[in-house]
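$ fold --in a.seq
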Amino acid sequence: MEAAMPGKTLMWIMISSLLITVHVHGVTSQMGHFSRSDYRYQMRRLQEFKASLTGRDSVSFVAPSSVSPAPSPNYSPPTPGRSSPRVYHVTTYGADPTGNRDSTEAVAQAFADAFRGPSEGFLMEGISNLGGAQINLEGGQYLISKPLRFPAAGVGNMMIHGGTLRASDDFPTDGYLIDLSASSSSPNQNEKTKESPSSMSAQLSSSSYSYEYITLKDLMLDANYRGGGISVINSLRTSIDNCYITHFNTDGILVQSGHETYIRNSFLGQHITAGGDHNEINFSGTAINLKGNDNAVTDVVIFSAAVGIMISGPANILSGVHCYNKATGFGGVGIYLRLPGLTQTRIVNSYMDYTGIVAEDPVQLDISNSFFLGDAYIVLKSIKGVANGVNIVNNMFSGYNKGIEIVQLDQSNGGFKEIEQVVVDRNIVRGMNIKGTIGRRTVQGNGRSWNIDFNPVLLFPNLIRHVQYSLSTGASNVFPNHALRNVSDNRVVIESDVAVPASVFVTVDQGVSS
């Protein structure tokens, strides 16, 4: 300790001297002889000198002009585990971003490594939280010859994004480019458990869902007329955002079981076209097939397919959807609701462009604030004759004066027998025929009987449940007694006890039974 004292004394003497020098120069700088750059230079020399003394047991004098900055610590890459990077670049696995070579195995390996990556506990029970891991396609185009899947179920909180996947000529015709379905291979599931036993052991199959919070974003998927684009099976809170899916011959997107799959800001079409395609009559496939519940399709364009959106699960919502997939005149359907007796679907703020909507036995269906162009219309199709809780209001219909009705009934399987709380009203129509469940008409005449026929405007045949009317006469010498005398075959008869010139205003309602 004593031996080190002279060295420390010398060190403080040198620092004090340098400080005095800087101070003196600082004083003279006020007189215009010392620039700001000189001051910074002196301060940097002081810092370098102090750094050269840090961490030493003894001090040996080195002239400030020869002092070098202390070396920075050596960088060491993060060790595998919780602190590892979670972005998996597919080209580092050998994927070819030009699309000339098959990249299936390379991209699949990135899927597998992401699946085995570090986790942060669990989301739903049995769903390992991958902490926001990303599979980055790096803006490349990759040739894929078989569906891309995770090795097993049981992971969540990850993203696949940023590139193009194109099916090869030998891609299976019943496959999907990205297949979020549980693998049937149990060895892979066991392998995952071995890779990270602290986070995944014995819990992969305990969840009732296969995956949770998987995001597919900024992708172009070209199925090459060999299969489909994306399959989401029994998954929870899946997000498909800003995707372009084309050349499918089955489904562009299939959602089955599970719930809360959100599809938004995306474009889907079997053929790349902008309407008026000479081959439109031959369009096939379904752009979006929803076989689950609690899903949402928002701000999506479907520009070619036989069916734009097929829905066979309840409690879904469609908003901001533009369908011009295949014209009704060619046999196309924009939105098909195939869940008779339990529809529970809302279609709002959408654009049906030359293609319409079909709903089988609709129960709790809302279609509102949407635009139907080119004689597009809505069909209520009877399966068991049920229509309950249907709201078709505040829409716009535009056609070509061909006598096409805005809402039609398909009763080829039998007529509608159970009709409750059905409201078709307040729609704006141009060039098409109005149909609704509420009719309003005025007749004038001089006599004792007024007959009003509502068949041209009422939707359901021979059904009037409620009538309101008023009779106005200009005759000053009589005060007629009048009454509703008959309601049948969608006709209303009003009679008075004396002949008078009168105007009769009548409103009828089909959808309210009490």
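$ fold --in b.seq
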Amino acid sequence: MATPGTDISQLSEAQQSALQQYTAVTDQNIAEAIPLLQRSQWNVEIAITKFFDGEGPDPVAEAIAAQSRIPPPRAARTENLQQSLLRGSGNALREELRPDAAPRIVPQPENQVIPRPSLLLAILFTPFQLLYKVLALPLRIFAYLFPFLPNFLRRNTASRTLRRVDTNGRRPLSPADAAQRVQREFAEEYGENELPWAGSGYATSLDFAKREYNFLLVVLISPEHDDTSTFCRDVLMNSEVNTFIRDPQNRIRLWIGDVRDAEAYQVSTALKCNKFPFTALICHTPEVSSTAMSVVARLTGPMDSNTYLAKLRTIHTQRTEQLDQARSAHAFQNAERNLRREQDSAYERSLAQDRERARLRREAEEAERQAERERKEKEMNAQKLAENREAWRKWRVTMISPEPAIDAKDVVRIALKMPHAARIMRRFKADDSMEELYAFVECYELFEDGGESSEKMPQQPTDYKHEFNFRLVSTLPRVVYEPDKDTTIGQKVGRSGNLIVESITEEDDEESEE
């Protein structure tokens, strides 16, 4: 309905149609509907959504404001060859300052270890092995006499070509077992120590440091190197170095590898190890990427414990703040993820409870409707049964034989004790059935009301079988007489009898059925 002050005639046909659709759905006053449609650019769906869900920020106004905030196009940049070369050199310098990515060494599965050749092949290749040793002996002597010559012929260790290493019959083990063997050999060689050994392979230690945002201190040793013993005894076994590495606040995970082992050799090649003893500090570098693990420091060659600790502590201090921030951000993300998961779980539980309550409510309503239908059906059946019973009584009272005369023969005198303390006497023919006697008792009230003289002849109800809700019994001794049509009163009662009318209850029916 239009209100005073609202002129719909000024609207266009499309606007009037939109107004009609909107008011048909929301039933809102036209004076309030027109401003809402105007704010919704006469879009009926947007207006209906704002009406039911509430008006939030206007997307059209936000889009217009965003367009107004678009910065003007930037002018084309011009540069000469000298500026391009300088910019290129600056990018190259930044690339050089970026730390190297920490290698991810994937160990060979134990089930893929190359088996040793069979005995037959070993016998066949024995002559070739002897010939190789005979020919290689002069070369070894020459290399021993001139040890500086192989350095000029050796390939660059920074290349991708893997070098061969002679393990001197060292048994290949899994990365975890190899790490434990290195720890055991270190303790046998340099004595018991308190170094925080990782006890696992390099790949496992790297994954742990990446997951926990810790530092991974990689130490590569070669027992054949002259400075290895001094480095292990004077630097790694130093108390200050031990204290710094074992400090839980520094969050350092130590992994020591022997280059005679396969995994440690691969790690030395990937880390470009060209001098022993070798130490690399690996940690998360957020400036590279959100998941990057990079080598932030390399300590190579012999040095005293103070210098080693000072360099290690300097790099550690520089990277600790970044790691703390990354660890805090990761913890915040995990907490937010857990909170979101708990909220989703609580929402699912609440939704399940709501669904269960709705289901119980529907079941209760359906049960009530079913009970109501059963009650009405039961009432209708009871009413129909009462109508059929009454119709049967009216019909049956007309079929009862009249009482014989006093002087008639073959007459049975019966005294009936009615339920309401009424005692009646009546004569019946001896050949009348017991059902006739029951029908008389059933229709006795109609006899008293004069039902026998009814002018309209009642009809027997169809699809109805009458059942008597009482029984006739005699006392001393107690005998129950059934309403049998084939048995006469004379056969059951005799010349006379005193019968009691007993009402049949549901409990009596259950006892009789049992």
